[in-house]
Amino acid sequence: MNPLAITVIKISSLGFLAGMGVVLGFQLLTGSINTRGLLTDKVKGTFSPGRLQMIFFTLAAAVYYLFKAAEAQSFVPLDNELLVAIGGSSTVYLTGKTVSVIRHLNKLQNLFNIIKK
User: Fold this and answer.
1) How far is CA 114 from CA 40, 68, 93, 107, in A?
2) Distance CA 61, CA 55 (A)
3) pLDDT at residue 27, rounded to an integer
4) Are 82 and 23 contacting, i.e. CB atoms less than 8 angstroms apart?
5) How far apart are CA 81 and CA 39, in angstroms?
6) Which of 5, 96, 115 is nearest to 42 (CA)?
7) Which residues contact 24 (CB under 8 A, 6 or more apart)?
8) How far apart are CA 51 and CA 35, in angstroms?
9) How far is CA 76 from the centre of its chain?
10) Helix (H) or strand (E) holding 96
């Protein structure tokens, strides 16, 4: 492929990503994107450490991959360690969510049994 075409594609891709980042950042700062309740457990209504760790690991993995791809100046295959970290984070979150939902359902079942009597 023509080196000029490759340079144009790289610059336009970076420009597009930078533009999207600016728009996303602006909308987050102005409140156009609703982040209320992002770190709140929907069942209990309290702060959710599971959600925080899930967001942290996802963003950390994305930044790690972005730097690896920028260093190689091309798409790179995902490291097994990165996949394990993301999978482990998701497993921890889903396990906590499952426990929370089961507890909530047990409370509802107990309430239903009291009403039924």
Assistant:
1) 29, 58, 32, 11
2) 10
3) 93
4) no
5) 26
6) 96
7) 33
8) 13
9) 20
10) helix 80-116
What pLDDT was estimated at residue 15?
92
Secondary structure, 3-state, 17-64: HHHHHHHHHHHHHHCCCCCCCCCECCCCCCECHHHHHHHHHHHHHHHH
pLDDT tens, per residue, the chain with 117 residues: 788 888 888 889 889 989 999 999 999 899 898 888 888 877 778 888 888 988 898 889 888 888 888 888 778 888 898 889 889 989 988 998 888 888 888 888 877 777 876
Q: Which two tokens stand for residue 22?
A: 């600016």
